[in-house]
Amino acid sequence: MNILGIESSCDETSVAIISDDVLKTNLVSSQDFHKKFGGVVPELSSRAHLQQIVPLLRLALKESKLELNEIDLISATAGPGLIGAILVGFIFGKGLSYSLKKPFIPVNHIEGHIYSGFLMKEKPEFPFLVLVVSGGHTLLLVVESFSRIKKLGSTIDDAAGEAFDKVAKMLGLGYPGGPKIQEYAEKSNGSKIVFPIAQLKNEFDFSFSGLKTSVLRFIQKEYGESSAIPEKELFDIAEAFQKTAVKSLTRNVERAINKYQLNSISLVGGVAANSFLRDEFTLLGKKYNKKVVIPDLQFCGDNAAMIANRAKNLFDLGETFDLDYEPFPSFFSKYFQ
Ligand code: KG4
Ligand code: ZN
Question: Looking at the predicted structure, is the pLDDT value of residue 7 above 70?
Fold first, then answer.
C-alpha cells in the first residue's frame, strides 16, 4: 500500500510517501524567509505552502518511482496549527482523494509527533513514555497503544520551543532560536549563572515563563538598557538557560519513569533536535534501563513522514473519514484520554 502524507501546519511544507512500511521519500521545504520578521507570518506561510505543494508532490512521486494513480491512501495534517496554513495541505489532500477516488485520513499533528519513533528501525515498545517538545506544545504522555494515549502533564504557559525562541530573541540571536541557543551554549565553558526551575502543583506539568523572565531580569540587571552583551556572556546565558530548560523537562520524565510501568521512553518534536536534551534523555534511559527512541533529526521538526506513518495506524484501526470532515486548529483526536 502506498500512503501519501502531507504536512502544512506551520512553516514547513512537506510531502512523504510510505510504501508497505518503507519510507520512500520525506521532502521538507522550510520557509526560511520568516527569519527577517522574527517569527512566522501566517499569511505568508499559507502562500508559500500554495507555491510549494504541487512541485513537492511531483518530486516525491518521482523519487518514489510512482505514478499519482498508484497512491492508495491520502493523509494530511488536520490541526493543531495555523488554520490558513493547515487548509492548504488539507484541501489539497481532500482534492486528491476526491479525484483519485482513494480514502482520505486527517491526522492530528501532535499524534504525528507522538508516534514518530515508529519511523525508526528500533521502535518504541508499548506502553511507552513520550515527551513531546515542539514550538507549540510540551506534553508528557503515556502511550498504551495506537489508540490510547494518557496525558500526564503539559505546559501551563509557554511551550519549550517557544521559550528557546523567545530567549534567543532577547539575546539578539534571531529566529528560529532553538538551534542558535544550542550553538551558543556549546561554545560556553560552563557558566556559573543559575536560573530557577518552577515547582508546580501537578508534578508532571511544565512552566517556562518564569525561566524566561529570570533570563530577562538577568540581562536587565547586568546590562541595563544597553543591548551590547559581550559574546562570551551570550554563550554563558545560552548555556545556563538551556541547562535549566532541559533539567525541567528531564526532571518530569524521571518522575514518570519512577511512577509508571514503561517499556520504553521516546523524545519527539522540534526541540528533540537539541543535542543536550537528546544526551540527557538518553542518560535517563540508561540509568533506568529503559529502551530509548529518539527519532533522527529529519523526523523531529515538522515533516510529512510522521503524518503518513500515523495515517497507516489509523487505517489499520479501521478509521474512515468522510470528505466533508472539517479541520479545527485545536483538533485533538478521541484517542487522547
Ligand atoms: O515541531 P516543530 O518543528 O514545529 C512545531 O510543531 O511547533 O518545532 C519547532 C521548534 C522551534 O521552537 C525551534 O526553535 C525548536 O523546535 N528547535 C530547537 C532546536 N531545533 C529546533 N530547540 C532547541 N534546540 C534545537 N536544536
Ligand atoms: Zn510540530
Answer: yes
pLDDT computed for residue 225 by the predictor: 63
Does the C-beta of 153 come closer than 6 Å to ligand 1?
A: no
What pLDDT, on the 0 to 100 scale, is given for residue 286? 98
Closest CA to ligand 1's atom 8? 270
The residue contributing the CA closest to ligand 1 atom 7 is 135
User: Could you say which architecture CATH assigns to the domain 2-114+299-316?
Assistant: 2-Layer Sandwich (3.30)
Which residues are bridge partners to 108 per DSSP? 79
CATH superfamily of 123-294: ATPase, nucleotide binding domain (3.30.420.40)
The CA distance from 45 to 23, in Å, is 26
Percent of the chain with pLDDT over 70: 96
Percent helix, strand, coil in the chain, to 5, is 45, 20, 35
Cβ(164) to ligand 1 under 6 A? yes
pTM: 0.95
- Domain parsing of the chain, residue ranges: 2-114+299-316, 123-294
